[in-house]
Amino acid sequence: MSQRELIYILLFVTYMSEPFIWLRVLDRKLNRKYNSNRYYILYCIGNFIIILIKQVLTFTGVLGKSEILGTLFSAIMILYAVICINLLYKSEIKYKLLCSGLLLIGSLIADFLSIGIIVLIFQVPVATVSKFGLVNTIASVFSKSILFLITYAACEKKERKIELFKYWEIVPILFSNVIFEMPCIYIFNNMSYINNNGIVLFYFVFGQILFVASTIYMVFILENRRLREKNQEQRIKDIEKELKIGEELGKTVMQLKSLRHDIKSHIGILKTLLKQKKYDDATTFLNCMYKDVDVAEDIFLLENKTVSIILNLKRKLAQSKNIQFISKIGIENFYIPDVHICSIVSNILDNAIEAAEQVEDNNKYINFSIESDPEGYFIKCDNTYKTRPIFKKGVYISTKEDKDLHGYGIKIINQMVKNNGGKASFGCNRQYFSVLVYIPIPNTNILNEGDKK
Predict the structure, then answer these.
(1) Long-range contacts of 252-261, Cβ-Cβ distance < 8 Å, separation of 24 or more
(2) Sheet of 423-428: strands edge to edge?
(3) I need a surface site. Which of 25, 59, 341, 376 has the fewest CB within 10 A?
(4) What is the distance between the alpha carbons of residues 384 and 387, in angstroms, rounded to a whole number?
(5) DSSP-based three-state secondary structure for 326
(6) Opening angle at CA 177, ends 176 and 179, nearest 5
(7) How far apart are CA 425 and CA 429, in angstroms?
(8) Model pLDDT, residue 436
(9) What is d(CA 241, CA 113) in angstroms, rounded to the nearest whole number?
(10) Is residue 162 very low, low, confident or very high in pLDDT (cuts 50, 70, 90)?
(11) Is the pLDDT score of 337 beyond 60?
């Protein structure tokens, strides 16, 4: 294989990689509009063709002869990207524009850094870098490698979504960086302005580094602020939950005291009727007593008061939404910290209630149980649903529009179960969504050999 053939292959692969790098970022930050990959592959092919045409015109000197044509081609690439992103993704328009804008700027930064490093460090003329050949190929591969590293770092943690528009104080920083990059687009498409002027090129490379540094600093500030706010919100929720549990415990105690008083009174009346040999009246009165006793059957009375209150709260919430709630609790000792078991139970039932509530007919149903096992216990929950949940690579994906809450309850369940050496599984059929959790008694290794059925 000749050097020229190798250059063609490397450039082909390099130009083809950029659209797929873009697609990777878009898929992680935005919501796809279509399930089929066909449209997204066509977008990548179209982007590749535009890049290929631009590079051919650059190598043949056509773009170098016309400043307007070079700028126009960049505008076409930007317009194509914005239109395709708008058509293929269903997120809010502001996030589409933000994501496409940052990707364009990221590509430009990667190109400038690769050219700047090659020119300043290796003393290669700018004209040589811009011409077809081995140097241009190395610069292209280096540029796409930088772009991949930048996007990989940005997308490594999918669950971390930074809402830039939520924090208006950093918007001026963002737009000042964007405005700074605008002249770079023009100069990049007209490298003759730089020629071999090392000072000019140095300032442009320094500008790109400054842009990246300020953006990283901005993201760092936002991430710390987001974490602080999240911790504060979680603390407030915990306090509210504790207050609600205390309030519910007080109501339960009062309800049981009232029932105890009523039962004593009823027994006295029943004894009087029996002494008077009014057996029919006694039978009628005894049947009426069952209505009061039914109240006690609606109250969970476990040794673990916190779990009892959680179950009582969730049952009341389900009943208030006309959801049939069937439950069976077969154990008293849960073997793990209260905060863990309460978090698992609460999130399972919250998801079940939310799903069953969406069912339009009278088929709103939840069946919840905790059953003992020789080496642990099972937590099972089946609920009806309206929209079939999505599983991607074995992971449940929430259908909620709010990406910040994307499968959040499922993540908490998985994490809590894992922390206690257990296993959680999720599945659904045409009628029910099912959750099965197994928690082993400490120092048992039942899960090491395989899944518990």
Answers:
(1) 252/299, 252/308, 252/309, 252/312, 255/295, 255/299, 256/296, 256/299, 259/292, 259/293, 259/295, 259/296
(2) 324-329, 365-373, 376-384, 432-440, 423-428
(3) 59
(4) 10
(5) strand
(6) 65
(7) 14
(8) 94
(9) 52
(10) very low
(11) yes
